[in-house]
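Annex B. Sample input.
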Amino acid sequence: MDAEGQFPLASTEWLSRNLDSPDLRIVDVRWRSRYENGRGISFDDRDGYLAGHIPNAVFLGVIAELCDKNHPIPDMIAPPKQFSEVMGRLGIGNNTHVVAYDDMGLPLAAARFWWALKYYGHRRVQVLDGGLRQWKLERRPISKDIPDVTPTEFEADEQPGWLATKEDVVAALWQPDTIIVDCLTPELYRGDGDRHLWGQRAGHIPGAVNVPYLANIDPKLASATTAEREALLSSARSFMFATPEKLGALYKSAGVMPDRQIITYCGRGNAAACGLLALRSLGYRNVRLYDGSWTEWSADKSLPVETGFPYPIEPSE
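Annex B, continued. Sample output.
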């Protein structure tokens, strides 16, 4: 339960019953990535949305519309004015109930959008547990209709407790009251395996513990390799979050305790948002997302980098 008393995840059953609620805005935020010229490139998947989406869902391009195009670090959150204009165009006001989803299985872009709304002061936003994959697995309706939207006004109200800057992370290094959580695969955390798509150096932020985002659906996947991850993402399995009991045991086994300050990060802030979503669903209050993540940290050669795997996670049963 979050600070507003709302559980961050919405079930497919609940959404199915409330598809036509006039107070609800369903937002499709699916995206893709590719490897190009030695770097990872993200792009919005509007074509996927047009081919079929949850009824009454609108499409939001998280790359084209919710990123700060003037920032030297790619994919940083849009400034307040831009964010407010996009929300208003989609018919999202400050009191609109929003449910976001993508089709990655585990919520990545959807969790990122949920976090962005929370950062800008929106109280009524949830992520569809299992996303579009779960919706399709349950053979629920799919539509190609584009809903009519009446524009409204959205007033962004920045909430610093949701965002960590590079300076915040530097200040948190080796501080016993703060835990930094790397949400990427164990290979990327260690600094070996496939080349990092989003960073200029290999490894992780010194002192960070590794809780891969895949572990949020099954703690036994905490040690899954990049190849195993790709196989899972291309499978038809369910990607709903693990039970609170399993999630709680997973994070506590990594030393991520609810009485600490917590900062999550990944490559560009998507997997980190998934980890933050999981922690907030467990009732953790003091959790922030490092928006610049490894893209920003690895590019600053004055900042330290650590390799290896000094903080193994014991998979929970």
